[in-house]
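Project standup — Tuesday

K.O.: blocked on the structure for the chain from last sprint. Re-posting the sequence here as requested.
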Amino acid sequence: MINVAGLPYWRLSGFYFLFFITIGCFMPYWSLYLKSIGMTAEDIGILSAVVVATKIFSAFLWGWIVDHTGKRMQVIRYTSLLSMLSFSLVLFYQDFWSLFIILFMFSIFWSAALPQLDAATLSHLGKESDSYTVVRIWGSISFIIAVLALGQFFDRQPIDYLLPIIIFTMALVWIHSLFIPKMRAAREQSNGLTFKSILCKPHVITLMVVCFLVQASHGPYYTFFSIYLEDHGYSNSFIGTCWALGVFAEVIIYIFIHKVIGRFGLRKLMILTLICATARWLLIAFLVENILILLFAQCLHAATFGIYHAVAIQYIHREFKGAHQGRGQALYSSISFGAGLALGSLISGYLWDLIGAMQTFLFAATLSATGVIVAWIGLQAHESRPLH
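H.V.: unblocked you, prediction finished:
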């Protein structure tokens, strides 16, 4: 347990737990639901992209509101409720444009909570920010539970049940948010720097480009991995197992990543992340029918998300301090999980039918390989800076 005075550990970790149960329901199975109602690969790519594309502006907008009002928990509560209410509209519509509008509206609210909870958690941890993953780990655990349970469930029941399940988990997220104590946004010193001056630092620009490339390379995976496995004859329970294995590897990394960061430094770990991502997409592209190789590729999620996210969060927390903290975390979310993932999902939707599934994952490998070069060159001079 983390020894930080005043840290509401179980309330914060409980929110991560419930939030990522919802992600565990949505991410692996939403594309299968869309396929079941007759959506094409292009449609699925666009509808997956719109969910994350709104983060490009909405996460940053919410971060700006929090930094200027200090009402972080109020924003999390209201947006959690509005997320549930807006997503509930999918129960009544199945045509492309209705779903597009509903998902656009829903994702504007859904994108608010996680960056602000990350900022609140890091603010509570203070100089022990390396231990962020010990709180965040509960989100990974709940994701595993969700994907395994639903994989078994959808082997016996129609995928249509996905919608009420997701709405129910969103309701739990909102209810739990009511029990987290109000926390004003951090007001510590920002070292006299403006937000723009921090953003214009060469190593910060490099970091944002790298984060963009990492998540763009994950676009085909998050959008089509379940369909890819289904097309190769794998069952829903096996698909759920694959997703769970990846996140289980992430959990293992989260347990000791704070020690690894201190030993190897942020730059080396970020480069390792990108190399592992490149290897992962190549293995999935060429050897999807080899179960052992496929499972090994899923274990690389420990690096391609686990190490990556822990390192990126530390970079952002170190650069964006005080009144810039909320916008810093939101900017990271906007560029990586927003712009990067949206572009990767959108392009993969077009490539899937145009050039094929294997080639789409080769596109992902090209993006992450480009990230290796960018990180190697642009983050080099910044490696020796202390973490705190």
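K.O.: great, moving the ticket to review. The CA atoms of residues 91 and 163 lie 7 Å apart. The domain at 9-382 is CATH 1.20.1250.20 (Growth Hormone; Chain: A;).
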